[in-house]
Design goal:
Elements lengths: L14 H4 L2 E5 L2 E4 L1 H8 L1 H22 L4 H12 L5 H7 L4 H13 L3 E6 L2 E9 L4 H18 L5 H20 L19 H7 L5
Antiparallel strand pairs: 1-2, 3-4
Helix pairs in contact: 3-7, 4-7
């Protein structure tokens, strides 16, 4: 290949870099198509992992007679007993009306109790009962078993590194600012392509 070629492909000494990029012009780096495809599946992969992980956790929880919302309530109350229902709804990521039904059921089962706040009688504070506290350990056991199943094949060091990467991604997305929605008159209008032109572009002979 000539020295002045505009599409000269050069090899790097580092194998990892060789597998990711080539030079398609002086000073320009391009990812290999297969790497680009994997990068584009990033969001889909995260969502699918989350879906499968939650589904597996819920399967294990059902065997103990627990639901995912109940597990969230147990864990959050074990950390912050005495909080209000409004605070718990936010921490457990549950809609207020959904949380009320969950709490009613858990209170009926004797797992928690509502007490009036001495500073504000209109506010009800939540506490775990003696029957509810042992369930927290059961939930953490479910968490440990589901996580261990998920990271099978990874060493403890790799698992710790992976969690570190996820924490960085979480911090990045938490730090971004919201993108304001454009005004209606600012949204660009797409030009409608006539049907005859679409047929020609698509190679249709009908």
């Amino acid at each position: 290949m000539s020295r002045g070629s505009a599409t000269a492909t050069r090899r790097f000494i580092t194998p990892k870099i060789v597998s990711f990029v080539t030079i398609s012009a002086p000073g320009q780096l391009f990812a290999r198509p297969d790497v680009v495809t994997r990068l584009r599946t990033f969001g889909f992969l995260l969502k699918d992992i989350s879906r499968r992980y939650v589904h597996r956790f819920e399967e294990r929880a059902r065997a103990l007679g627990l639901t995912l919302p109940q597990c969230r309530v147990l864990v959050q109350l074990s950390k912050r007993e005495g909080i209000s229902q409004a605070e718990l709804a936010e921490l457990a990521d549950l809609e207020p009306m959904t949380l009320v039904r969950v709490l009613d059921r858990m209170e009926a089962d004797g797992w928690l109790e509502r007490r009036s706040d001495p500073a504000d009688r209109r506010t009800r504070c939540l506490y775990l009962t003696a029957a509810g506290r042992p369930l927290v350990a059961d939930v953490w056991n479910l968490v440990d078993r589901t996580r261990s199943e998920s990271v099978a094949g990874l060493s403890p060091e790799q698992t710790d590194q992976f969690i570190g990467y996820m924490e960085t991604i979480h911090a990045n997305l938490t730090a971004v600012t919201s993108i304001p929605a454009p005004a209606k008159d600012e949204v660009p209008r797409r030009t409608r392509i006539p049907a005859a032109v679409r047929k020609v572009r698509g190679g249709s002979t009908t």
